[in-house]
Structure formats: structure tokens, C-alpha cells
Amino acid sequence: MVVDRVALVERNLDRALAQAEAPAARLPPDAPLSERTTLTARQAVDLFTDQVRSRALDVVARALKAQGAGFYTISSAGHEQNAVVGAQLRTTDPAFLHYRSGGFMMARSRQAPGVDPVTDTVLSLTASAGDPIAQGRHKVWGSRPLWVPPQTSTIASRLPKAMGTAFALDRARRIGVPVDIPPDSIVCCSFGDASANHATALAGINAARYSHRRGSPVPILFLCEDNGIGISVDTPRRWISSSFSGLPHLEYVHAAGELDEVWKTVARAVTNCRTARRPVFLHLDVVRHRLLCDRRRRSQRLDRDPAPHPHVGGVDVAVADVAELLDRGPGRHREDDRGALSRPLSEGRVPLGGGRTGARLPPRGRFRSLGWRRGLGNCCGRRSGGGGGRRLGRRRGLGRRRRCGLWRHVDRGRCRRRCLGRR
């Protein structure tokens, strides 16, 4: 039986919101959720909105992929708790982000009027030339107004760059080089628990510790988003804490629990990094969702949706009416995100296909040749000039044909992949 994991996860969230009971007494917007935190009811609802908006973009990305109009489906589902970090950092704090940072970007964009994170993300998903940060070259999280340099690496190569940026902030002022961000800015660098084992990650962390030991200010927040899995391989229990909690010249902070607890812990980590100008390792518990690498794990994690769980929503119904949560919930944002897509498409402002204006999508079903440059066969192995469709051998009785320039050979005259072509 084939299980639509996306639909199941969304139904779980919708059901949790629909079954929520109305509170007996509602907190004022500026009242803290509890005595142990500074998180207010208004901020909690805003965080919930940012997290759900990120989840809705994940759903839209998969829908675009199914239509042949989107080219990226790595989701932020399960990592939405990084919105707490995005809400507490300033837009002048440079951020080198992990590729599951949808919640972070939604929350950070709230501080910058005029930035539309939903439209920018959809433009990036569709490889549009209108994407403000990459112009269709790649799906990345990035923004000049938000001080988020675009990063594409999955092997932690951004950690040395982030460390160098943090080192340069105070060094530049010491030698008289102007810097256009406040003097107390810090650098944030996020990565997964598997990336923490890469040599580049360890080099960046060790360089920050070494520089701090030498007396140089290194205001960097290493944000490790620990979902317990790296490329379908389980991370050993307590591996991150045992590996980094005892290192000298590196403050270790573990954020877990309810939303107000995470808010308080993140606030402490950010404050210590900003005031002491020292490296801080923030270990954030998250959940891996929609596993694609190991079929055996799918049934084990389908119901571990963090949205109604303390990992993401955790929004006490006392901070908002149920109707308000439903209005801010995934159903509305799915429609908003689809609207953000349909408007630029209908107005012709989203050229597809690597940012090249006028590129066309191939018809659905059997591929119809659109033509290729001389010397290369098209995807179905038909001739397109220059002998490009010539067979290069046989395997299992099926013709192996020359590549079209984008994807591997195909069998039985059918494409394994849809691809964009030009005459």
C-alpha cells in the first residue's frame, strides 16, 4: 500500500488544530506565556504562523515538482523550530544557513518590511530569473536585505566562511575598515547533526575556539539542528552533546522542550554570544520528516509531526482562539502560497528553466522532441542532427542511446526525466 506521507502529515496537523478546545481565559497579546520566559502571546502566535508558512511552502514545492514546474523538494518540515532563532537574531546578524531553514527565514523576514519570503521562495523553487538572490541558478536561502549570504553546500563548507566572517567583524573595526552593520552584530551558522562530523565543520569550530583562546573576539553562534539522522543513518545517542559540550573555549547550550523553554534557552545563547563576543554552540532538537532515503523508517516517523507537538507549534491555546489558529493554519497558507505562484505565472514574470525567458515545459506523458544542439540526441534517442541518436551498444536487448546533455540514457524510447529543451 502506497502512503502519501505529505497528505498524512498535513491531515495530522489539520486534525490537531480542529480538535483544539477553546481556552477558558485568553492571555493578553503582550503577556508572557509563563513566569519562566519572556515569550509573549503575540510572539508565540507569530512564531506559529512562520512555522506553518514554512510547512505550506514544503507542500507547494512538491506540488510544483509533480507538475514539472518546480525543481527542488528538500523540505524544512520538522526543523521549523529554527524560527525561534530567526526571531531572536537581528537582520544585521549575518546568517549562513542550513538548507532546512524555512522557519528561520519566515521569522527573520518579519523584521524587514518589504521582504516577501513566500514569493521569493516560490521564485527560487521554479528556477526563475526573478529570484532576487540566485536569478534561477539554484534553490538557496539567501537575501541581501536580511544579511543571508546564499549557501548550497550540504557538507558544512559554510562553517569556515562563517567563522572567518565573525573573526573579521571586530578585526575590521580594529584596523579601521568600515563595516555597515552594528558593532555588536554576531554571525549565525546552522548545520545538521551529520554535518557536524565533516572535517570542514570541525575545522571551522576549532578555528573559532583557537581564535578565542588567543584573545580574538569571535562572535559566532553555531546552530546544530539535531534530527537524529544523517543521510538515512542514525546519529548515535547523545553524540552531539558528548562531542561538543565539554570543549574548552566553546559555550555549549542545549535547547529542547516546550516553545517557551526553547525561546528562553535561545535567548540566553544569543545574549551570551553578543555580549561576550565568544563562540557559542547551540544544540537545537528537531525532527526529521518525510524521509526519502530509507523506506523502513517511513512508518516509524509518519505520526511524529512536530507541528502540533512541542517541537514546533507548542502554542498553548490560551494565547489565541482556536478560530485564529485555524485562520493562521496550514490550510490558509497553502492557498496563499499557491496564489503567490499563480500571480507571477499569469503575469509572465516567472520564466522557467534556469532563468531563461521563454523556456517551455515539455508536454506531459510521452516526451515530444523539442530539438537539441548539434551532435547530441534528444532524450528519446531520436535523431536530431549530427548523428546524435546513434546507438552506442545494447544492454538486455534495449538500445543504449547517447545522452541528451541533461540526463542519462533512456530505454524503450521513453524519458526517465522530463527536461526542458530549446530549438
Keywords:
11% strand, five-stranded parallel β-sheet, 11 strands, globular, 35% helix, 12 helices, disordered C terminus, 423 residues, two-stranded antiparallel sheet, Rossmann fold, alpha/beta
CATH class of the largest domain: Alpha Beta
Low-confidence stretches: 291-303, 308-317, 343-423
Our count of domains comes out at 2
The helix/strand order is: HHHEHHEEHEHEEEHEHEHHHEE
Number of helices: 12
CATH architecture of the largest domain: 3-Layer(aba) Sandwich
Q: Tell the overall outline.
A: globular
Mean pLDDT rating: 76
Q: Can you list the strand order of the major beta sheet? A: 1-4-5-9-8
Strand proportion, as a percent range, falls in 5-15%
Q: Which percent bin holds the helix content? A: 25-40%
Short description:
The protein has 423 residues and is an alpha/beta fold.
Structural commentary:
This protein starts with a helix and ends in a 22-residue tail after the last strand. The protein has 12 helices and 11 strands. It is of the alpha/beta class. Helix 2 packs parallel to helix 5 (117-125), helix 2 (41-67) packs across helix 12 (330-346) and helix 6 (158-174) packs parallel to helix 7. A hairpin with a 4-residue loop joins strand 2 and strand 3. It has helices spanning 5-18, 41-67, 83-88, 102-109, 117-125, 158-174, 199-213, 239-244, 259-276, 295-301, 322-327, 330-346; strands at residues 95-96, 141-143, 148-151, 187-192, 220-226, 229-230, 233-234, 251-255, 280-285, 391-395, 398-401. It folds into 2 domains: 5-346, Thiamin diphosphate (ThDP)-binding fold, Pyr/PP domains (Rossmann fold), CATH 3.40.50; 367-423, no CATH class. The strands form 4 sheets. Strands 1-4-5-9-8 form a 5-stranded parallel beta sheet, with helices on both faces. It has a two-stranded antiparallel sheet with strand order 2-3. A two-stranded antiparallel sheet has the order 6-7.
